[in-house]
Q: What sequence folds into this?
């Protein structure tokens, strides 16, 4: 559910907050490290269901990517995977399981492909790939979002995203993402920024990836992301595959119990 920064702090009383490389980072729990990397329509608050339960077994880290939530706006060229690596270094974490959703999953995969020594396990939920041939449906969504931003209507741009990604989700979830997406637009629109990958050929490296990987999609997600999940499942050698029934693009938030029922056994195997 949406909440103010004060409410956010009250609910995270036992978490330690850090600013690393301009990024807002929270850490809670003890044990093997698990890093949560949020989607591009959200911020670190999308992990609230896991944030309340996983720290009983793990040291859990969540953070706001550059230009989201309470992290600074991007300026110039930047690399989300490099930011993720900087967080691991800043917290003295040698190896971690990384759980990435959508855009955050792409950053997680990019780091695993280039620095597999730092990743003990990888969970990829509904992620894009840079070489994917996007459908007409997805292109139409992008055009609608761009038109709204160029018209200066961030409320409309936010609704375009909420309807496209979470059309069938319950209203409390839509409201939570509505707040997070609107905040991202406020930080990012007008910023002179360009994100890049660490890997020069991420698609070509998938077949050589040796990190234990779990690929997840939502049964009701946009077709492009189900196709990508199938591609990852076929290509990555040490890969498990799962689909969350009744979920769209954010299964960890839309169906947290079903998501955890798939992910928690994987975590137990790879930490």
A:
């Amino acid at each position: 559910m949406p909440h103010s920064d004060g409410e956010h702090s009250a609910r995270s009383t036992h978490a330690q907050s850090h600013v690393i490389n301009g990024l807002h980072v929270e850490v809670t729990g003890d044990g093997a490290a698990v890093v949560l990397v949020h989607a591009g329509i959200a911020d670190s608050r999308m992990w609230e269901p896991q944030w309340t339960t996983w720290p009983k077994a793990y040291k859990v880290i969540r953070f706001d990517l550059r230009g989201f939530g309470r992290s600074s706006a991007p300026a110039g060229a930047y690399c989300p995977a490099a930011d993720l690596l900087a967080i691991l270094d800043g917290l003295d974490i040698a190896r971690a399981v990384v759980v990435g959703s959508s855009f955050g999953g792409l950053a997680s995969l990019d780091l695993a492909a280039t620095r597999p020594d730092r990743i003990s396990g990888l969970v990829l939920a509904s992620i894009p790939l840079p070489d994917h041939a996007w459908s007409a449906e997805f292109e139409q969504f992008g055009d609608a979002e761009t038109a709204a931003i160029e018209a200066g209507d961030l409320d409309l741009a936010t609704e375009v995203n909420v309807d496209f990604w979470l059309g069938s989700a319950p209203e409390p979830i839509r409201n939570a993402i509505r707040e997070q997406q609107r905040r991202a637009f406020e930080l990012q629109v007008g910023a002179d920024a360009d994100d890049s990958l660490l890997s020069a050929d991420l698609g070509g490296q998938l077949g050589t990836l040796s990190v234990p990987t779990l690929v997840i999609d939502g049964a009701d997600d946009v077709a492009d992301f189900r196709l990508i999940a199938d591609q990852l499942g076929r290509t990555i050698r040490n890969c498990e595959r799962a689909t969350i029934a009744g979920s769209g693009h954010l299964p960890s938030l839309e169906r947290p119990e079903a998501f955890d029922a798939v992910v928690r056994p994987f975590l137990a195997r790879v930490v």
Summary: Strands lie at 16-20, 23-28, 33-37, 59-63, 76-78, 96-101, 119-125, 193-195, 213-218, 239-244.
